[in-house]
Amino acid sequence: MAAELALRWLRGSTKRASGDDRRGDAPTPDVGRLARQARRELLSAISDFLLENDLAVNPENLSAAYNALSGNSPSLGRRVAERRASAEGISQSWLRSVCADPADQPDEDAPRRLTEELDRSLKVFARSASAARSATSDYGAQLDRHASELHKLDLGDAASGLASIAREMADRARSAEAKLEESEREAKALRRRLSRAKRDAERDHLTGLPNRRAFDAELQRQYAEAKAAHDRLCVAFCDVDHFKLVNDRHGHEAGDRSLKFIARALNTISDKNCHVARHGGEEFVMLFRGATVPEAVEKLDKVRARLAARRLVNRETGEPIGQISFSAGVADAFAYPAAQDALRAADEALLQAKDQGRNRVIAAQKWQRRHSDSAQ
Q1: Of 88, 282, 295, 319, which is the active-site residue?
Q2: Which residues are paired to 284 by β-bridges?
Q3: Does 316 qualify as catalytic in the annotation?
Q4: pLDDT digits (tens, 9 = 90+) for 353-375
């Protein structure tokens, strides 16, 4: 009777391990290996595409092949697949023509969406791996305990055999637990690298400020939040005065150092209510949350005055660079139909500042007219 009970318990344990509850012996995916394999397959597909269609290995064709085969441009991928299946085949002229079609341009937001999707998948995998590892650990401990109990039963050789089988199952459970733990570590490391890559993708490499992509996302977020909270929000456009002369006279390295100098000056007023980003070239953009246009103009003008009072020197040659200043325009984000309209108004105010002699900060005319009307 005791032997029958022991065998019944062992069959139940085996069923839990390999049937209804497969956590102990489930195969563990190697995240890093799968990622490398996916990259190899994509590279192989791109090379096959170029060779099969007798296409030159140049940036234009490599970009087209990547966009079509990686899913970066689904429309281009469909057209390439249809053309490959037809008798006409793919020629250089055909590929160039379809790549010039705006409908086949890559989706700029696709990398961001794919990154977010991968991040979510990694989070789910990490939670699942952690839960499975915990369950496997508990199951292994139970097997060890039952194996010890079997030894206490007076079953002779049968007890020893059953105990050996139970211990072997416990060893397998611990091995599976170790593999799950390793995959969990890999998933966490991959998430950390992914997080760093996302931060790097939203940073300007020269100044360290957020780049245009990051600013556009921040503008939309701040605009929606401020509108819902009936809060003030201003946008500003800044452009370095006579920057081309600095590059022409002192070289691009001196120009880059000047841009970093201005970026640091603008960043001194950056806080939870003020966001600064490099828009591109010698242009910078700013958001002022909770500030009126005159308040934003005053805050930005103080930075302009401090910069204009400095006289810079080219540290490589010792030659004086002289005054570095900027012109800027500021607009009320809610004086226009949309956030991008306000940004364009700030840019127009910036052009007015340039026309009026540079080295100044000007409020957008629409705000000036509205403010004048309300004062009458």
Answers
A1: 282
A2: 238, 278
A3: no
A4: 999 999 999 999 865 444 444 44
